């Protein structure tokens, strides 16, 4: 079964790659903005808070191999957040 939907790359983007990585060819742009950002400390990524703002510049999970599956494993948490309002 094809799983091409899990990987998108836009080398024409003026920010490509938006993180410092060794292998640009495997850099995944699918989650340009990480949907797990709203989870705060529960996102599971490598982040820090700078002046009270979540800084994900050191996190490459959404852009790496396996990133799609990682995000989808937590997407129910985002859905739950939306339904609680």
TrEMBL record:
<feature type="domain" description="Cysteine-rich small">
    <location>
        <begin position="4"/>
        <end position="81"/>
    </location>
</feature>
<dbReference type="InterPro" id="IPR007212">
    <property type="entry name" value="Zf-like"/>
</dbReference>
<dbReference type="Pfam" id="PF04071">
    <property type="entry name" value="zf-like"/>
</dbReference>
<protein>
    <submittedName>
        <fullName>Cobalamine-related hypothetical metal-binding protein CrdX</fullName>
    </submittedName>
</protein>
């Amino acid at each position: 079964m094809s799983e091409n939907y899990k990987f998108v790359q836009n080398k024409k983007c003026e920010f490509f790659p938006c993180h410092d990585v060794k292998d640009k060819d495997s850099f995944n742009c699918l989650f340009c903005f990480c949907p797990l950002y709203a989870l705060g400390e529960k996102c599971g990524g490598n982040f820090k808070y700078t002046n009270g703002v979540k800084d994900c510049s050191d996190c490459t999970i959404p852009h790496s191999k396996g990133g799609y599956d990682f995000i989808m494993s937590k997407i129910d948490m985002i859905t739950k957040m939306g339904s609680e309002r």
